[in-house]
Structure formats: C-alpha cells, structure tokens
Amino acid sequence: MEFGKEKILRVNQSEDNFSDITFVAPYSPNRNEEKSPQVQIDQLLKEIEKNVWGCDLVLCLFVAALTSYRSDRCLRPFPPSHIDEDGKNFATLRQTCDNIPPLHTILKEPNKCSHDVKNLLMWLFMEKGHPILKRINFNAVQFPSKFSNEFKPQFIFEVFYNDKFESLWQKRQAGRKTILAYHGSAVDNFYSILKVGLQQHFSLEKEVLFGNGIYLSNELSVSAHYAPFGQTWTNSSLGSQHSVIAICELINDIEKVKCRDSQNKKRSLNKDSLHEIPEKYFVVTDSDMVRVKYLMVYRQKRVFSVKSYLTEHLFLSLMFIYLVSIIAIGIFSNSSYTRSLKKIFRMFSFFD
Q: GO molecular function: any one (predicted)?
C-alpha cells in the first residue's frame, strides 16, 4: 500500500488477510492548520468542557487499544499525524499519550498541553465523522432486559452518529422493527467498535459454535462473560480499569439476524453452525444490520486487603513496626513494669 493512500474496508467487502487492512478516518489537516494555535486550543477546550465525560471515555478506549498486545488490529482508525513513510509510528504515539494530562488539568492549565497532544485530542474529539459519546442517566436507557444490581454499570454513554450515518441507518432499516441486545468484548476492542462498527468478518478467524457473525444476547449475564476488565487511561476521572458492554440496535432482518423464532424455525440455523442458535442469542451475519447505541461502563473496584496495603506502603509499614518495637523495648526494660507483670502471672498460676 502506498503511503498517503487510504485503504478502507467497506461493509460487506471481504479480503483474505484482514491484518493488512488499515482503517484511516477522514482527516483534514489543512482545515486545522489555517486556524491560529490559540483558536485551535480554544475550540478544543470548549469541546472538552461541554462533554468532559465523553471525551474522557474516548481517551480510555483509545489508550486501551494502543497499549493492547493486539494494538495493530485494535487501533483502527489510526491517527494520521502518527503515520510516516515507514507506516504507523506506535512509539511516538505512545509517547504522546503518556504526556496527556488529566482533562480537568487541561481545562485549568491549557499550556501544559503540548502541540502533539493538542493535535491528537483535536482529531479524537473534533474530527468530523467520528461518533460522539455523551454520558446519560441510567433511567433514560431502554435496556434489552432487566438485570440485578450486581450488573448495574457505574456509567452509561449514548453514542451519537453523524447525519450521514444516521441517514444510511434509517435507509437500511426501511421501516423494519429493531431489536436491542448486549454485546460484550474486551475493552481494547471498543475503540475500533466505536469508530468502525461491529464487523462480522473478524469471526472468520475464530472457531465459532453457531456460525460466523457478530454474537449478541438479550441477557446481560451472558454478554458479561465476554467483557473482562482491562487497563485503560491512568489519568481518567472514570478510573483506570474498565469493563465495557455495548447495547446494540439490530434491524430485524430474517436472513441476516439469526435467532430462535417460533414462526420461522430455519432462522435458528446459521451457515456453518454446529447447532441451533439457543434462546437469548443473536448472530448477525451482516455488519449493516447492527450498530452500537449505548456503552455500559464498569469501573473495577479496589478491594482492601492488609497484604496489598503493606505492599503499597512498605516504608510506612516498616516505620510503624520500628516504632512499636522501640516502645515495647522501653516498656519491658522498666523494672516496675516487669514486677507488675510477674504478679499478674502468679495470679493466673494460682488459679490453675
């Protein structure tokens, strides 16, 4: 692939080797370069201020993809400012991300935001075509099914798409009803899921029980098994370790959305499926039929333990033990205290 030319995987397009595909989002450097640095930073600050939670989560997902051992696959689209003649420059991108201060610090002290950091944040938060995340109230969400408080997320974000994508979705739907279902995945996958969408072709690389496609469920406990906690952005106000489960909207297409259907028994059989698709499962064989509507974000809680506390505060623990030892030596070296202690021991021996 020649440098500077985009190779974009279109929906329903198949290739033999997906590892060579590079997703590059639309980028207009000239548009930003025409503006003065102060205007650019003012726009960035305004964007962060009006949607600080959404920007924070985007950074969390981006950093999770960048630090993943599968970063070449997970980090799609890749920031164009970090693509050079040799291809994707992960080293400089990681260095830039390491220098991103907390968002509340950027709002108070924007001068701490370097040129590279500013360009990256503008691309992540302000580039046209990128979906926008906005934190919403728990009660404002329509869930596919009820669940216990054990599965209640700490944060919920709604995904807002641009007008062009929204128009295409409505055109695909063509008046058909939609179904809500959960999709669980590793946290480092959600950056590409958010930016590129769920892609059914990735299942071709796995052994799947119910045929190739995107697996979803209307039971949260089922999807939760596929959403382990993972490391994200250490400077996030949302925490640094998260699990993410998507609430997706499916177009109820009989041929492309496989599930149990009492009126159509053949619908529960997918191509290359070893068994019938069980209750509460959906297998979507066409990416056009599904989109992410909400993200449920779980923050991993730290469990207090004496061992972990002593490990993290080793110096203070040693100082405390040292002081206790000094006090104990001082007490036991006192002759009057020793005589009193002997009397107590005699009393106990008398009762025996």
A: nucleotidyltransferase activity
